[in-house]
Write a structure and sequence with these properties.
alpha/beta, 5 helices, globular, single chain, 144 residues
Length: 144
């Protein structure tokens, strides 16, 4: 399959990726963990190498626990993290019946550096070669 380079990152992926939001968020109850992990691993076997998640993709499991999409994706792809690219987003949080949007450099840095970020995606954020999008004092976007 032809690869495409993501911007100037040097990361190349297949042109079709897998958005993972529906496993945990927005389409009814979260998919049970075993099924979701199996589906993500099957996607890798089929040639998918680009997966999209976000810290705000959460849902409530039937037992009342929270389904964190980043954690689910991290668990499923841990053994192949050197063969895949996981894109995640931050800056949007659920606050009851509304969303809080904060895409400031401080909020982005907090999302990336927070110890919970490692838990949420099982260390892949910390060990997977992260590109951090930030803004300089002039509001220009820079990669660090």
């Amino acid at each position: 399959m032809n690869q495409r380079t993501l911007g100037t990152s040097g990361l190349s992926v297949n042109p079709v990726g897998l958005g993972c939001m529906g496993f945990s968020h927005a389409y009814g109850a979260p998919t049970d963990r075993q099924t979701a992990v199996r589906t993500l691993r099957e996607a890798v076997d089929l040639g998918y190498d680009f997966f999209d998640t976000a810290e705000s993709y959460t849902g409530v499991n039937p037992d009342g626990s929270i389904s964190y999409n980043e954690e689910l994706v991290g668990e499923a792809l841990r053994d192949v993290q050197d063969k895949v690219v996981i894109a995640t987003k931050c800056g949007v949080r659920h606050l009851g019946d509304r969303l809080e949007v904060d895409c400031s450099p401080q909020a982005i840095r907090k999302a990336v550096e927070d110890p919970a970020a490692e838990r949420l995606i099982d260390g892949t954020l910390a060990s997977g070669g992260t590109l951090v999008v930030d803004a300089d004092e002039n509001g220009e976007v820079v990669l660090k």
